Amino acid sequence: MPNKLTILLCSTLLAGCETAAMRDPGSPFFVIPAGTVLELKQALDVPPGQAHVKFQHGAVTGSFDDFTVGCRLNVKNLGPMTLQPERFSVTRAEVDERWEIYPTLKAFYRILYLHSAQQPEVQSLRCRYQTGGLEGRDISVPQIREALGNYFSLDIPQPQ
């Protein structure tokens, strides 16, 4: 009987730790919920011949430093076009990791699928970085905010 009680107690403690990390937006284990809002704070130009705008260290960039979190806002059609300030609803969020070159280079992704009735051409925000082999963690909300800078805010609803 003590063995069953010990197992139950340990399982409960471990589940409690996991839940706390998953509810902390600063944790790489945080699950970004549907209903989160990504707000574009200023007009944003999509370059000619591109279907995305890249951000890193709070600035629009043409290319990424792959070893630092960078985000790409994806649209349906090729630019040029100008996106207007707006609140985009996150309909779904995904976390992924992939080996770029096994076993030495791994990429981590966080993808937010977006919806807007006024600007339906905006599809998703895809954030990514890569790191050596067994290093690295999933991308956290603070890392996304740092990559986007003052162009966007990411408003996460409070848990009920």
Structural description of this entry:
The chain has 160 residues and is of the alpha+beta class. The chain folds into two domains: 1-30; 32-155, no CATH class. It is 19% helix and 41% strand. The protein contains two helices and ten strands; from the N terminus they run αβββββββββαβ. The chain has helices spanning 2-23, 141-148, and strands at 37-40, 44-46, 52-56, 59-61, 70-75, 81-83, 86-101, 105-115, 122-132, 152-155. Strands 4-3-5-9-8-7-1-10 form an eight-stranded antiparallel beta sheet, covered by helices on one side. A two-stranded antiparallel sheet has the order 2-6. Strand 8 and strand 9 (122-132) form a beta hairpin. The protein is globular, with a radius of gyration of 18 Å. The mean pLDDT is 89.
Q: How is this structure best summarized?
A:
The protein is α+β, with helices and mostly antiparallel strands and 160 residues long. The protein is built from 2 helices and 10 strands.
